[in-house]
Specification:
By secondary structure, the protein is an alpha/beta fold. The chain contains eleven helices and ten strands. The protein has an eight-stranded mixed sheet with strand order 1-2-5-6-7-8-9-10, with helices on both faces. It has a two-stranded parallel ribbon with strand order 3-4. About 3% of the residues have low confidence.
């Protein structure tokens, strides 16, 4: 991550992906079955809408990240491949369909995300609550991880309602360093996102919180370190870091393909700063291996609490 990458005069052409970021096209039976179930239930997935490179691996294992509240977002972030515009009405059957999908897929851990819905009075928070309740009733042993938008101008009430519904993990991604927000995440504010995650912990100190950033957008190393410190100040438990990939030529360019070795170094620094769990690889995404990571994070907290108790 050199400083030259931040110069407006240097705008690299769309680069060929290095070997470490390439994945095979999905062809497995499990992939097809997962796709057919999503179609049957009328559910959207961030796996498809955001063109996730891990879709083949995850869907083969019948792990899908459901994207609720439609497939049209009211924001237009420079990194995101989800459609932008005026969304349709919220589907009242969606919470039960999500729960049905979790049951049919046999999920022990599910990740629920959404588009931004600035058009709704509560930003869509009430729909998250309905989905969580439907899952608790239908698959009570499934642990639930949610990845929410920032609920601009509606944050406190939205966060309290969702946290009270009892998800196991509350995720909200910071996405990038503060300096790049005006161009990469223009509809959001860095410190508002931090405050959201702080609010989650204030309302329920026991809930696991999670956030992630993309690398390769022109950020500098010290800026990434500062984001880690900001996250720890907000008591965030789990940090994910992955390589940004340009979805289309219209989106923000890849300024650098960060090497696996550099990701390992960032991961080591993050662990030293006190995160319970860190996932830092080029292909890491918010929900990639989320179930395994959740179990490891829960075990790390239990070990931490046991150690503290033994010293008391």
């Amino acid at each position: 991550m050199n400083d030259l990458a931040n110069s407006p005069a240097i705008q690299p052409q769309r680069q060929r992906k290095p070997d470490w970021i390439r994945v095979k096209a999905p062809t497995s039976k499990g992939y097809g079955e997962t796709r057919n179930l999503m179609r049957e239930l009328g559910l959207n997935t961030v796996c498809e809408e955001a063109a996730c490179p891990n879709i083949g691996e995850c869907w083969t294992k019948k792990h899908a990240t459901v994207m609720i509240l439609g497939d049209v977002c009211t924001r237009a972030c420079a990194f995101c491949n989800v459609k932008t515009g005026m969304p349709r009405a919220v589907d009242p059957l969606e919470p039960m369909n999500v729960a049905t999908a979790a049951a049919k897929l046999g999920l022990t851990h599910i990740v629920i995300t959404s588009v931004d819905r600035d058009d709704l009075p509560d930003g869509g928070a009430g729909h998250f609550v309905k989905v969580i309740k439907a899952l608790r009733e239908t698959t009570p042993d499934t642990t639930i991880e949610i990845l929410t938008p920032d609920f601009r101008n509606k944050m406190e009430a939205a966060v309290e309602a969702i946290v009270d519904a009892g998800p196991d993990v509350y995720n909200h991604n910071l996405e990038t360093v503060p300096r790049l927000y005006p161009t990469i995440r223009p509809g959001a504010r860095y410190y508002a996102s931090l405050r959201l995650l702080e609010q989650v912990k204030r309302h329920n100190p026991h809930i696991f919180t999670k956030s992630g950033i993309m690398l390769g957008l022109g950020e500098q190393r010290l800026e990434v370190h500062q984001v880690m410190d900001d996250m720890r100040s907000a008591q965030i438990d789990f940090l994910t870091m992955g390589q940004y990939l340009q979805p289309t030529p219209k989106h923000a360019k890849v300024m650098e393909f960060v090497t696996p070795k550099a990701f390992d170094a960032f991961g080591s620094i993050a662990r030293a700063k006190g995160f319970l769990q860190v996932a830092a690889t080029p292909l890491t995404r918010s929900s990639y291996h989320a179930g395994d990571d959740f179990r490891q994070m829960r075990a790390a907290r239990e070990a931490q609490l046991a150690k503290a108790a033994s010293k008391a």
